[in-house]
From TrEMBL:
InterPro entries: SAM-dependent_MTases_sf. It comes from Amylocarpus encephaloides. This is Methyltransferase. Residues 1-21, 29-48 are annotated as: Disordered. It comes from the Eukaryota.
Length: 119
């Protein structure tokens, strides 16, 4: 019957500890530590400036790719016009029993209110 003996590594085979103050430590493929200097400060992201065209301010990031203005009110009015044209100026789909002049409409969350004015 054979007995299994534990294997002891000599102290010379043990890697020496590396101080890790502000250094980044990684292990190489053979298991030895690889010390690298910490990365420098991250570069600041380049933010493109907005530009003004025809009295409206547009995003400068990827100029020309996003065709709507930065101002939310202008953008919402343009969307209202798009949907009005797409729906042939039909402002509602609900069946109305009485004339529109006699109805009351609660304007909640309809943007700039241009829909309620057109209604």
């Amino acid at each position: 019957m054979s007995s299994i003996k534990p294997v002891q590594k000599s102290l010379r085979e043990q890697p020496t500890p590396v101080p890790v103050d502000s250094m980044a430590v990684a292990m190489t493929s053979n298991g030895t530590p690889c010390v690298a200097a910490p990365p420098g400060p991250a570069p600041e992201p380049r933010i493109a400036e907005n530009y003004t065209e025809n009295g409206r301010e547009y995003h400068g990031f990827r100029r020309g790719k996003y065709m709507f203005p930065c101002d939310e009110m202008d953008r919402m009015d343009i969307f209202h016009k798009f949907f009005s044209v797409a729906r042939c100026d039909v402002l509602h789909s609900a069946p109305l029993s009485s004339p529109v002049e006699e109805l009351r409409i609660l304007d909640v969350g309809t943007g700039t209110g241009i829909w309620a004015i057109d209604m």
